[in-house]
Specification:
Layout (H helix, E strand, L loop, with lengths): L12 E6 L4 H17 L11 H13 L3 E8 L2 E9 L11 E9 L8 H15 L4 E7 L3 H9 L3 E12 L2 E11 L8 H6 L3
Parallel strand pairs: 4-5
Antiparallel strand pairs: 1-2, 2-3, 3-4, 5-7, 6-7
Helix pairs in contact: 1-2
This protein binds coenzyme A.
The site of coenzyme A has 20 residues, from strand 4, helix 3 and helix 4.
């Protein structure tokens, strides 16, 4: 007897920086975000917010000039996102640094390499914009995220003991930094060590 095995088509993964979101994208992102929140994951929200509030949130993000939104897609559907936050114009002294925040992938889309790709794309964008440093922070309970950031070369420089309150518990937060090479001008190492 011939046993036929169903061959699954390969999953399509991608990450893009977006400046606008379709209604379908907003609905997918709201679903992905609430799924990640319910699973307990990392995004600042602790309680699911519902579609209307999350769609307003993402529409608002797109309006802020210093915020760049990266969307992870699995088979074309938005399943996660991350924000690259640039310093405001009045913070000239820290203009060299950007922050990666709100990175998450819906539980049903994890393990496909989307988070790794999202962080890498955000780093490339930060470097292309001339930033030399990327900073991030994460609850100490987010083991997968911490393993990913360390694998990508982020350096743990400090721990905030009172970082977040989740489920009635105080949770510490880990602070990470990574230098970037914009590919032009002085190397970041020389710039950081230099006098100007
Ligand atoms: C952290 C998170 C974004 C990872 O998303 P993901 O798309 O599944 O991650 P990837 O598929 O890119 O995998 C990243 C790495 O984690 C590893 N990994 C994935 N799932 C894992 C698991 N359940 N346990 C251990 N390691 C795991 C992968 O092996 C991979 O390592 P590699 O690139 O060296 O092979 C996702 O788990 C998440 O959203 N968590 C909750 C939110 C959060 O913690 N955000 C970060 C702080 S803001």
């Amino acid at each position: 007897m011939n046993a036929s095995v169903a061959v699954q088509p390969p999953r399509q993964i991608g990450v893009e920086r977006v400046e606008r979101l379709s209604d379908a994208d907003l609905a997918d992102l709201a679903e992905a975000t609430d799924a990640a929140i319910i699973e307990g994951g990392g995004f600042g929200w602790v309680e699911p917010q519902g579609r209307a509030a999350l769609e307003r949130h993402f529409r608002g993000v797109l309006l802020v000039p210093e915020r760049e939104l990266f969307v992870a897609r699995l088979d074309g559907h938005a399943v996660g996102s991350a924000l690259l936050v640039r310093p405001p114009r009045n913070n000239e002294a820290q203009a060299f640094a950007a922050t990666l925040t709100h990175a998450y992938v819906a539980p049903y889309a994890r393990g496909f390499g989307l988070a790794r790709l999202m962080v890498t794309k955000a780093e490339e964008r930060a470097a292309a914009l001339g930033h030399r440093v990327i900073n991030l922070d994460v609850r100490e309970t987010q083991a997968t995220a911490i393993a990913l950031f360390q694998a990508l070369g982020y350096q743990h420089w400090g721990t905030h003991p009172f970082y977040a309150r989740v489920g009635g518990q105080t949770v510490a937060g880990l602070y990470y930094t990574k230098t970037l090479e914009p590919g032009r001008g002085r190397s970041t190492g020389a710039l950081i060590d230099g006098a100007d």
